[in-house]
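Class, look over these structure tokens:
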Amino acid sequence: MLSIKALNYINLRWLGSSVALALLVSGQAYAGYQSIVITVTKGFGLTLYASELGDAKGMALGDEGTLFVGSGKSGSINALVDSDQDGRVDKRYLISDELTSPEAIAFHDGDLYVAIEDRILRYVDIEQRLRRPGRPKEIYSKLPEESRKGTRAMRFGPDGRLYVAIGAPCNVCESPAPFGSIIAIDVDTGDSEQIATGIRDVTGLDWSPVDGKLWFADKGRDWMGDNLPADEINRVDIKGAHYGFPYVHAKDVIEPAYDKPKNLKVTAPIFELPAHVAPTGMAFYRGKQFPEKYHQQLFVAENGSWNRSSKVGYQIVMLDVADNQVLSRHTVVSFLDGEFPVARPYAVINAPGGAMYISDDLKGNVYRLYYKGIEPAAPQEQEQESTNE
């Protein structure tokens, strides 16, 4: 695996309406440098915010701007601090490296919440204790202990409850609750409520800044060919609605292995993504730095295909949302260099100052996406040194 140590040079060249960044990186597994290409929509910039974070997955932002990053394979949570707010990490703290797949994390009222195995832990007043976080307190112990990892999302809703998506422990199967559902937990009392069911593999969810409705991305099943079934973008309009799994995939792909119960009403997805792009993280853009057409729109991290004859995904897309419908889908950042994935974006969240953070579970990086709105320099002036650490 290539471990990115630093961005040494950024070379810009036009690719249609986008800009390609040829990033020369030094890696432990390579002698010298290797040129890679990342495609970024015109007007945007992309910098390496942090590296060597294991398989960087879930992220959570503290009230004081601390970025927490969970890694599944290394069992670690890191805290990244940009104290002078210049877009670069100044300090880095290891919260723990002894957890079991702490990929789903959330921050609320000063505390950091982590889902591991069958329980949820809380690190109290974490931003004041980054050097010595202490032992976390168990606040919930009714999650199913999963055999398949990477199938959870966790985020606090506008109502102050902790929403947890619990995916199915299989490619396709009938599994007992709470597998295949989204639940909302009162972290003070431990009471929980089922919000949605019939989901497969949800690791990204967010609430619309327009009307407060919950949206989530669900990955379709594998091994039905290159183009079936579509991955899904869903919205919760009715509490407790069923979203089809394992009986119906996407809008109308019938599962051959299981018959849908006669009286089961299935809620169809709001929008279908191409099959196997694997939407993992999602966030509505709440900043003001990006142009107005991006405001309050839905950004989705497509982690990329693994069982397809040619690769798709490996990008950040924006879904143009109006009147509770998705009108179109646009690529903002592509990490696919031909058939070579430069990164696998896992999560995307709003960052201080109106930028966005992107985690990469392939190289263990976090990128910072920002808008600069400046025309590219002339060819002879395009090479510039980067001071990223």
Notes: The domain at 50-105+143-362 is CATH 2.120.10.30 (Neuraminidase). The first strand starts at residue 7 and ends at 15. The radius of gyration is 20 Å.
